[in-house]
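Fold sample X.
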Amino acid sequence: MTSIKDVAREVEMSTATVSRALRGLGGVSEDTRERVLAAAQRLGYVPSPSAAGLATGHTRTVAVVVPLVTQWFFAAVVQGAEQVLRECGYDLLLYNLAGDAAARHRVFETNLLTKRVDAVLILSLKPSPEEIVHLQRLERPVTIVGADMPDWATVRIDDELAAATATRHLLDLGHRRIAYIGGSTEGVLDFTAPVARLAGYRDTLAEAGLAPRAIWEADGDFTVAGGLRAGLALLQQHDRPTAVFAASDEMAIGVLRAARECGLRVPEDISVVGIDDHEMADYFDLTTVAQPVHEQGRVAAAQVLAALDHPGWEPEQVVLPTRLVVRGTTAPPGGDGAGTTSGESRAGGQTRR
């Protein structure tokens, strides 16, 4: 493998001069820099990122901490962030916690990130007070996607509002027997969305004079398989609901499969609405509350880049809008087919697409 000494011999210069030329530092003429770069390219020299980081204090790498990289939402946010970071010459270092509390401790409460990265993106996790102390000690920009944390750079949607929009859509259609499928509100990773979306569902029912029923609230694990399992449990009840609000499209897709297995028609016998506007939502003709998933990753990446480029940059709390997208899985109870015309609703208004 070609080393910096090989490049120095090729151009008959000291390794110090070659190093400065390759790193773009001052004290080197433009002619010398061009000779060094040409020789490095000719010899196939690739500088060591770790060595460059030691010399400059910058690694050109951003850590992204993901609860479960296999889930569509997290993968889509990472993709959006990676596009922005790559365009600006930064690499992405992925830490997949995979539902493991020990992995979370290792990432947040040890020195794992020290000197490895220039900034940190955290997805859908609200750091504990102990984790906040460790993040502050890094002295690196941190942006959190999906959590409301004053004084920290954050990007999120209003999860309570999104859930309220979905629930209100079903209420407006005339449904009063509305079930909810979400995720566990207690667990090793403490996701932020399940708590907020459950609250939005319950509060909206209360505003309509309806009390939530424990037997109509189920844990779908934010997966298709979980939605299928929870959907079967709900739809096989003797006193079953007429509508289901699933807190993610993947769970909603599972409910659609459950309805089919139970011999129920959608939306004639059961209405289903989700949250996300998953890439498969249109294929399943699923009514959903759309959120800008890729955009959350792009905005979060832009925030850490702004913090890196401008040391005095003040953290921003960005809340991106959601919108109701009405498709064919919702209709009034009794199945007269109304309410299945595609459209979008924003802030209470509705427009045709």
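Fold sample Y, listed below.
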Amino acid sequence: MHQTALIHNPRSRLNRRLAVHLPSGLLSASPTNEAELLASLSEYANREVDLLLVSGGDGTLRDVVSALPRAYGQVPLPAIALLAAGNANLVAADVGACASQRDALSRLTTAAAQGRWRRDVVRHPIAVQRRGEHPLLGFFMGVGALNRATQYNHDHVSAGGSLSVAITIAASMWRAVRGVGDWAEGDWLSLGIDGAAPRDGRRFLFLASSLQSLMLGLWPFWGSSGPIRYLDVDAYPERLGRSLLPLIRGRPTTAMLESSYHSSGASEIRLKTPGPIIVDGEPYSAADGEFLLSPGPALRFVSP
């Protein structure tokens, strides 16, 4: 019999508009900071919770999975079931989730009691390590145009879900191609892949992900596979207007491969940049600008 518990973020986009019904007897917590989250998860570990329901978006999930290894220690990590209530919900689009509706938690607990899951998959988040700190575990991150797109989304896009992503991508493409502001110049980045000598310079866009699919048919990766897929596009990329569609579909032209566009898989990425990187929709900075990216622990995701 599963011991089930909930982490609920009432500030997530859909949760702000929806009073989710809590099934009777369900352990639940709505932590407001890292210390409260760690305390709640530690209590769940002591109670042998082996199925964790997470009601929130990508940022909520990032914070939860980052705290899980510390809270559970040597105890096996719980399976995770998502109630997608955030802005983009990129992870939910890949691993499956329960739609954010008033009876969503009841449907999840019923599925858990019956042991019937429509999807049951394993993913490894990317461990983003700052010097001397516990790693942040995320699934989608980047530098350059992603920083600008994230800020544009926060400032100008009120829609949620796939519509939010579509609007942000369209607006970002238009600004980059038209040379609006500093979009095409990107950010300075030193990038070392799997122990190779770092390649320094300005990047229009750098992305890294451990997901196996993205929403809207997007997949801006190609080349060799690996636990971390990455895209690396030099600043002022050549033929940007013609290259955008092949880029977001992961089908580069010969001209792209011979110029500014690089993609492959990796087991370890070292990067250094003066500004923040975006991890699952939010900026993340390091005092020395250095980050180490490597595969995180195996996490099991289930959905009804």
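Sample Y note: Residues 140-279 form a domain with the Tumour Suppressor Smad4 fold (CATH 2.60.200.40).
Also: The CA atoms of residues 158 and 164 lie 7 Å apart.
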